[in-house]
Amino acid sequence: MRTIIARRAGFCFGVRRAVEAARSAAPAYTLGPVIHNPRVVDELAALGVVSAETPEDIPLGARAVVRSHGVGRGTLARLQRRAGEICDATCPFVARIHDMAREAEAAGLPLIVVGEERHPEVEGIRGWTSAQSWAVADEAAALALPQMEGALVVSQTTFIEERFERVCAAIRARVRQPQIRKTICPATRERQQEAVRLAQKADAMLVVGGRESSNSRKLFELVGGVCSRAYFIEDAREIENTWFHPADLVGITAGASTPDRTIKEVAARMNDIEKQVTPSEEQQAETSATESDFMADVEKSMVQLRPGQTITGTVVQITNDEVCVNVGYKADGLIKKADLSSTDVKVGDEIEVEVVKVNDGEGNVLLSQRNIVNRKIWDEIMAKYESGEYVTGTGKEAVKGGLLADVMGIRCFIPASQLSLRYVEKIEEFVGQELTLQIIEVDKAKKRIVASRKKVLIAEEAEKKKAIWDALEVGSVVKGIVRRLADFGAFVDIGGVDGLVHVTDLSWGRVQHPSDVVKVGDEIDVKILNVDPARERISLSYKATRPRPWTVAGEKYPVGSIVEGKVVRITTFGAFVELEPGLDGLVHISQCALTRIAKVEDAVNVGDIVRVKVLDVNTEAKRISLSIREVLEDEAMEQMPASNDLDEYAIVDVPTPAVEDEPEAVPVEIPTAEAETAEAETEEAPVEE
Length: 689
Prior knowledge:
Radius of gyration: 52 Å
Oligomer: single chain
Largest sheet: 5 strands, mixed, barrel
Distance between the termini: 120 Å
Helix content: 25-40%
């Protein structure tokens, strides 16, 4: 007779954690037994860990332990009101289902738990949602559910996977859009699968566990389905010699709530029975061959590992320094915290890892998550480099000759000459900044990259300038800012590109220098006259955005109005007065003074500011007649005394001057600007631009 003990037998991670927590918390109270194993419960009771049925059974201020099955939200609240200290030993896999129940509640979804309705784990899960919830253990219960549009479906962690699939199929007949989460504990699933494989080879099977243990009962159910001689026992005292034959291959498995020493006692008892039965050499050879075949099949069912291999595993335990991952190998894998790409991992998470060593000398598989992430990041960076795509980096340290930056976790060097379009005096200013970069050089062996920010800025400037050039439209009026003045015109920034307003396009009048019209920093409206993208030249006009002086001269300078102007030119027949740039009027010599003058200079000079009265405006002929004399006469009249004061003055008859003193008055025609031009061809008359 030969005996084989399943590798995954006895305490699972969650149960072992709960038992250790209860021992550490002693003396304490638990809500129900910590695990469904009488022997463990008795041992804990001896240490002062007492089981209570309800939170109210726990004395006020006492220490309480939440067992691995977990409790509902309401029960936990009651417990918090009673206990002075609470040690939560809820299995991480169960706690994850509690989170799902809360998410379903927040989304307004009903909750369906596939499991035994009265099991404490199922009751605890349903206690974490205020929405409708049901517990279904078989297809019949699932088909009895009401019709629903949607629901969240989870499983008791120890439920049989095959049965879970059948129940879910029935649920789909009642729920139109179910969200199914297979929350069966990976350790439970693997324990069940291994037990079934062992039972298929064995002549007899022993399932060790407490009779109140749900997972042990399900294990026995599975084993009994493939092995006709399956026995459910709580400890070694229940084993009977009559169950076995000399040639039997006996398999032993145990539920998650079975302590290691109970399994060892069962193995010792089977060893005693084995010694009492001495099989023949032929039987021994047959048994040995059977056992060898079984172990070979077990080995075949396990994955084969090699260094550098990438596999997916399930997190089964987390300590301060390491994360334990089940990768389907005969030994679990270990990841140092430093080799995790993210510390935000939980028990039950599936993560991708790389095999560093198959055996670290102590039988453990060394894994790394960071290696995979780094390799993926490097491949992504190389793809961006080959395609010329930009990357984003963060300045980390100013070093000699440039800046070190972090690009997706890879170190990158940016030469000082590639940091900006202009010389950078203080490289430290870029530390901590997020930078858009283009990779310009790669060292694949050392996994180092050299990047440029300058190339990105040049490309952005070119793109921006192209967009501006494409948007420019001849004839449109745009806003601009005067950036620079030259003798021949003003340079105006119209949104990233500069255009030139020639001096002749600054005003409708004469302009000696651009500063007479605009100054640096002025915001003005300009009209686009011409665009030459090839030569990057833009011709602009400022005067085109302003009304022509002669078009509004009649409204602006009505006949009879008195205005000020500047004498800009003197001729033999009169003086030209500038009312505004581009708009000159003529004061005939006869209108320059109150008395007759021989020449215009006797009354006014170039540059004088004079007050004139508008005599006539002819916009079509572009002529304005002005008078200084009438302004002077009006002022003289205003200074004369009122009529009732004339008595104070003597009235004197003034004799009419002789003919030789004053010739008879004859009509005088005031020369126009055109007449002046005809008379003096070399002189310049006002011309409309």
